[in-house]
Amino acid sequence: MRIIVLGLLCLMSFSISAQEILGQWKSIDDDTGKAKSIVEIYEDNGKLYGKIVKLINPKQDNPLCVACEGENKDKPILGMVIIDGLTKNDDVFDGGSILNPENGKTYKCRLKLDVDTGMLQVRGYVGFFYKTQYWVRIES
Q: What's the Rg (C-alpha) of the chain?
């Protein structure tokens, strides 16, 4: 009985923490500081995913991921899952990957909510090298 209760508490802990970052976020371009897209972060079978639900001022209508490899090669960027399979690890979600549709490269990913600013820290990394973006929540 204790194991069942403990298991339920763990699941509730994941759900409560995940709820804080679920929803839509505006990604910000590193170079220009302008919004690039809206990414919806959602939970599926205990893991977090993120897909592009809107492109802001795209250079072309319905662009394709020409730089991508594998299943995303030449697929529309709009609707593409770019954050894949993150799990809760203390106060962060990691263990999955993030795809940059501009260069087609996939990186390890970590998401963390900045409780002071309410922004989502999105970090992609390879080895010890990383790049961090801060996404802004879209209020419904």
A: 16
What total of structural domains would you count in the chain? 1
- For residue 43, the domain's CATH number is 2.40.128.520
- Predicted model pTM: 0.84
User: What is the identity of the amino acid at 3?
Assistant: I
Q: Which residues neighbour 115 within 8 Å (Cβ) at sequence distance 6 or greater?
A: none
Domain range enclosing 101: 2-137
The 10s digit of each residue's pLDDT in 33-75 is: 889 999 999 999 999 999 999 999 888 888 999 999 999 999 9
What is the three-class DSSP state of 111? strand
Q: Are strands 105-113 and 47-55 parallel, antiparallel or unpaired?
A: unpaired
Three-class DSSP category at 24: strand
Q: Are 108 and 119 in contact (CB under 8 A)?
A: no
The answer to whether the CB of 52 falls within 8 A of the CB of 36 is: no
Beta strands in the chain (DSSP E): 23-28, 35-44, 47-55, 81-89, 92-100, 105-113, 120-126, 129-137
